[in-house]
Amino acid sequence: MKYVIYELVGGWARVTLNRPEKRNALSAALLDELASVLWEADEDREVHAVLLRGAGPSFCSGYDLGRDRREDLRIREGASKFRGISSTDDDIWQIERNQRAMMTIFDMHKPVVAQVHGYCLAGGIDLAMLCDLVIAADDARIGFPPARSMGTLPVNMWLWHIPVQWAKRLLLTGDSLSGADAAKLGLVLESYPADELDEACARLMDRLALLDADILAANKRSVNLSMELMGARTMQRLAAELDGRAHMARPARGFVDDVREVGLKEASRRRDEPFGDDRIVLRNR
Question: What are the start-end ranges of the H helices in the chain?
Fold first, then answer.
């Protein structure tokens, strides 16, 4: 594995996103590797649960939109038999490709716990919201800033975690929450000081490892099937369609042009600068 580290730890597995130089930005190659190791963990009888975390300073900064994305999409110079992103249907196809890999977390039998630190933005929050439990550092930054210009969420599980008005508040503005406030809101289960996060997550994983894997699977699936009856899976198909449609909006096309001209970091700075410090501070909880 090039982009994912897989370790067995006394009855549970630790899976680490390993692109620290890119703040673990999600490429198709990384997601393919992630799906592969998650299914391996799901098949291994010695594994009772999986901890998902990120190497380096962040859990995950989002989807990889950098200059090397052309190779990730299998686009070659000149004519190509492979899909690119030149049509709306191609775009939706690429979104669904990534989505299928990420939905492994939801579909696999064994529970997955997300350990969130640093940035958990855009694709990072998509990934975390598919996990069964999310434990965050108090100072983690959690949100979906690309909603300001890029489109909608290609994986949309927010309404199965937080109330409608808070989902709208976060997605209409692209503002973010600290890990501590995300825990108050219920977007994550718990938060801890950053230097205590590893220990807190290990305690939870050791506790899950005490339980029979088949019992864990039955309880996870009873909840997830209930979510499916409430439309969770259908919403993911709609999310890909809506995101592809939103990519046709003028701000989305403009952002892509900015990325090509000045790079992702500067394009993101220009998009977010008018919002200043966008962290929401919960005052009534």
Answer: 28-43, 69-72, 88-102, 104-107, 123-129, 164-173, 179-185, 197-209, 213-229, 232-246, 250-262, 264-272
